[in-house]
Amino acid sequence: MTSPEASRRVVEAGRARGVEIDIREFPEGTKTSADAAAAIGCERSAIAKSIVLTLDDREQVVVFASGDTRIDLKKLAAVAGAGKARRATLEEARRATGFAAGGTPPFGYPGPVRVFADHALRRHDLVWAAGGTPTTVFPILLSDLVRVAGAEWVRVSE
C-alpha cells in the first residue's frame, strides 16, 4: 500500500518523536469512531478520536476522547482556563492541525497546539487513532500517544 501524503506526514511525525507508526487503510472509511471500530474490529472505546475545539473564539485545541464518549464543552472550557468552548469550524481545524476533519491525527501539526487527553481513554492500553485521512488509522500505546502529543490528562467527557 502506498500511504496518502497526509498519512506519511503522521508516520514522519511519529518517527521524529521515537514512535514507529503502522498506518492501516480501510477504504470503507474510518471517519467516525463507530466506522473505525467496525472496520478495525475493536470496541468503540478503544478509538482515540482527535477533536478540534475552539476556546474563546481564538485558540484551537485538540482533545483526545474515547470513541464512546462526548466532550462536555463547559468542563473543557473550565480546565483550559477559557470562558467558552465550541467545536472548531472545518477551516479552523485544518488551519490548526494541517489535516481535514474526520482524519485528524493526534500529532504532526504545523505549529504548537494545546492537547488534552480525557481520562475515559485510560480503559485501554492500546488505542487506535486517525492516520491523517478519513480512511486511515493506526494502533498506538496510550502511554506513547500522550507522551508524543504532549497531552495533558483531563476529565472532560460527559
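[next item in queue]
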Amino acid sequence: MSSRIQPTAQVDETAVIGDGTTVWDLAQIREDARLGSGCVVGRGAYVGPGVRIGNNVKLQNYALVYEPAVLGDGVFVGPAAVFTNDYFPRSVDPEGRLKRGGDWEAVAVVVDEGASVGARSVCVAPVRIGRWALVAAGAVVTRDVPDFALVAGVPARRIGWVGRAGVRLTAREGELGVWECPGTGAVYEEKDGQLVERA
C-alpha cells in the first residue's frame, strides 16, 4: 500500500511518508519530517521540519504542528489546533536585529499514544500530553497533562478522566478512587493524582 498525496500539497523530498498515509490539499510537510503508516493530514495542515509522527495519526484541517513536536501512535489533532515551539517568542533580539533560526532554542510539544487535542486548542511548549488524555476544544495547555486526563479551559485544568474510548469516566459506586467507562465498562483506579487501568 502506498501513500496518497494530493497535487496541491507540498511535501519536501526529504520527508518520510508511511504506507497508507493520505496528505490532503494545501498541506505542507517540511524537510526531514517523518510520518508513520495510516495517517491522515488534513487540508492546509502544517508539519514542521523534523517533526516525528507515529502510525494512525489524524491531523485535521489547518492544524499547525511546529518542530520539534513528537506525536505517538493513534494521536488525534483537531482542526486549527496549534503546537508552539518557542517559550519566549520574539521577532527581534534585544538590539532590534531580526532573529534567525539559530538565535533561539526550539522546545517540543509531545503527545503520547492515543491522546486527542481538540479543535482550536493551543499547546504551549514545552509540554507533554499523556496517553489517552483529552484536551477540550479551545483549551490552552501550559503544563503537562496526565494520562487519561480530561482538561479544559484557559489555562487548561483537569476537570475529569476519560478512558481509551474518549468517554468521560464515572465514579464507581462504593469504591473510592475507582472509575468506570460508561461506553466500554473498562475500570480505572486513581492513585496519587494519576489514573491507571485496572488489570
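[queue empty]
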